Amino acid sequence: MITQKLNIAIQGYEGCFHQIVAHRFFGTNIITTPCDTFREVARKVKSGESDFGVMAVENSIAGSIIANYGILQDEDVQVSGEVYLPIQQNLMVIPGTTIDQITEVESHPMALLQCVDYLDTHPSWRLVESEDTAVSAKRIAAEGNPHKAAIASELAAKLYGLEIIAPEINTIKNNYTRFVVLKRRDGKMAPDANKASLYFKTVDKPGALLEALQTFADVNMTKLQSYPVPSEPWHYMFHVDLEFDNLDLYFSNLERLQAATEEVHVYGVYHNGLN
User: Fold this and answer.
1) What is the pTM of this model?
2) 117 and 170 Cβ atoms separated by less than 8 Å
3) 21, 103, 124, 151: most buried, per Cβ within 10 A?
């Protein structure tokens, strides 16, 4: 019997960090569908064109990607898991190239910024911004120019036949990005789920936020992030990540939160990616 491979929508291209996450979560026997934007990822999942999607939502240095929480709300897809990935940037060239030959380095602006200390030691290099780290690697490989280098993942180097001439050049070594795994909303959750992501909106009265937060007294609130309500200037929703020992505890907290707020929307209940 032939089993159809899962189709996973990713933001970025072959060799990007989103693909690495997809392989970690689902294994390598999958099909990854590159998307130009995060919203495209969510829409492919929502439409059923892709079985699942992978989307970055937070970085240990840069913080939350606020726009992606808006996508979770707008597209109404469900979070079914998470992965914390250490971000390691590598300088790669066509095989046989030496450091002295390099005159130009290309990568995504964020990757260039993450490697600024290393790049500062080579002030003569011209830095070129691109739309994606993996695209840069692919372009360098296709051009075959020994004077050009790319900064990208180890996977990108393997895929495009490049040589890593300087590994892990990112300034901060303990740099992690948190990715969520998306699926079409079905309300189902794993019996061993121990984490939830949701947002709530409070009523407009003094003490409303405090009242809402007090409902989390017996669970571990690992994230609290405010973000604006687009249709209501100077009004805010609050994103929360909760960790709990069992689903009964989660449901009792959810019930209390619903009673204390104007609106609650659960993005997903899933297993903690750190344990």
Assistant:
1) 0.90
2) no
3) 151
